[in-house]
Amino acid sequence: MTLAILRDVASLRARISAWRRAAPASTIAPTIAVVPTMGALHDGHLALVRSALAQADRVVVTLFVNPRQFNDAGDLARYPRTEASDAATLAALGAADRLVLYAPDAATMYPPGFATTVSVAGVSEGLCGAHRPGHFDGVATVVAKLFVQTGADLAIFGEKDFQQLQVIRRMARDLDLPVRILGHPTVREADGLAMSSRNARLSPAARAIAPALARALADAAARLRAGAPAPATLADATEAITASGFERVEYLELRSADDLAPLATPDRPSRLLAAAWLDGVRLIDNFAV
Ligand SMILES: Nc1ncnc2c1ncn2[C@@H]1O[C@H](COP(=O)(O)OP(=O)(O)OP(=O)(O)O)[C@@H](O)[C@H]1O
Ligand SMILES: CC(C)(CO)[C@@H](O)C(=O)[O-]
Ligand code: BAL
Predict the structure, then answer these.
(1) Could you tell me the residue range of the domain that residue 209 belongs to?
(2) 281 and 211 in one domain?
(3) 191 in a domain, yes or no?
C-alpha cells in the first residue's frame, strides 16, 4: 500500500471520517493522533511517529513549513524542503494502512484575507519568545488549525522544543481543545547533540563542537540536582559553551517545568533551557533538573 499524501482540508476530513466510520458500531471508535512537523524528517521525528502509531489506531503526520512562525526571512528561505524523501521515510515505516501525510501549501493554510492569530501569554514570553518575536503566535495559530483540521484525539510534540510544548499545552487547556497533548523525550545523536533539521547546516568543524551545548546543560543540571548554587552553575555552563567554540549563548535559564516561571533555585520540578549560536546556526536544548 502506498502512503497517501493529502493536500487540502476536504480530503483530510474525508479520510478521517472514513477512518472513524470504518469502526464497527460495537467497538470503541478508533483514536487518531497527529504529529505536526516542518519536514526534513530525522530520527527524532520518527520516534514521535512510532510513538503515535503505538498509541493510536490512525496517525496523521503533518508537513508544513509555517511561514508565520519564522521571524527571520533568511531562516525561512534556508529551511530544508525534502517532501519526497520525507514521504519515502514515512512509507518505510510499513504502516501506510493507518498513516497519512498531510502536506498543505501556504494558500490552503492561509487563504487570502486570513486575519486570525492565536496568542498564548505567559509561557510564550522570555526564552525563545524573547528572541524570536511573533514565533509562538505563529506556532499556536498553525497548531490550532491543525488540531481543528484533523480533529485528532491526541498530539505528540518533542521536548526538544520544550517551550513550544508548554505553549501548546496551555493553548489546548485554555481553548478546551479536545486533544490530549503528549511530550516525547528529546532524541539525541550518539554524542549527545539533540537531533534537529538545522544541524545539517553546521560545517564539519562546527558539528564536532555542537555536543558541547548538551554536555554543559547536562553537567549543570546534575550539579543543580546535587545542590550547587544556581547563579554560579549557570554562569559556569555559559562559560563552558562559549569556551568550546560557540559564538554566543542567547539565553541559559532555570525555569519551572510546567509554567516556565523563572526560578532562582530548583525548589520544584525545573528545566534548564538554552539557545546558543554556532557557525551562524541557532541551536536549542534543555534538560530536566
Ligand atoms: N531531537 C528531537 N527529539 C524529539 N522530538 C523532536 C526532535 N527534533 C524535533 N522534534 C519534534 O518534532 C516536531 C517537529 O519539529 P521540527 O519539524 O521543527 O523539527 P526540528 O528538527 O526541531 O527542526 P528545527 O531545526 O526547525 O528545530 C516537534 O514536535 C519537535 O519538538
Ligand atoms: C509544531 C510545528 C510543526 C508548527 O509549525 C513546528 O513548530 C515544529 O516543527 O516544531
Ligand atoms: N522546531 C521548532 C520550529 C522552529 O524552529 O521554527
Answers:
(1) 197-288
(2) yes
(3) no
Taking the C-alpha atoms of residue 193 and residue 244, their distance in angstroms, rounded to an integer, is: 14
Q: What is the pLDDT of residues 271-288, one digit of tens each?
A: 999 999 999 999 999 999
Q: 139: CA distance to ligand 1 center in Å?
A: 13
> Tens digits of per-residue pLDDT, 162-186?
999 999 999 999 999 999 999 999 9
Q: Are residue 96 and residue 214 in the same domain, yes or no?
A: no
Residues 161 and 214 in one domain: no
Q: For residues 153 and 19, is the Cβ–Cβ distance under 8 A?
A: no
- pLDDT confidence of 29, banded at 50, 70, 90? confident
pLDDT at residue 23 in the model: 73
Q: Is residue 157 located within the same domain as residue 49?
A: yes
* CA nearest to 238, candidates 256, 219, 216: 216
Q: Based on the domain organization, do 209 and 134 belong to the same domain? A: no
Helices 230-243/211-225 angle, 10° precision:
160
Residues 196-238: pLDDT tens digits? 999 999 999 999 999 999 999 999 999 999 999 999 999 999 9
Same domain, residue pair 129 and 49: yes
Catalytic residue among 45, 131, 135, 184: 45
* Ligand 1: residue whose CA is nearest its atom 27: 196
Q: Is the ipTM of this complex over 0.95?
A: yes
Q: Are 43 and 195 in contact (CB under 8 A)?
A: yes
Cα 125 to its chain centre, rounded Å, is: 17
- Is 135 considered catalytic here? no
> Does the residue 110 lie in any domain?
yes
Closest ligand to 128 CA?
A: 3
Could you tell me the distance, in angstroms and rounded to a whole number, from the CA of residue 131 to the centre of ligand 3? Answer: 13
Q: Is the pTM of this model over 0.90?
A: yes
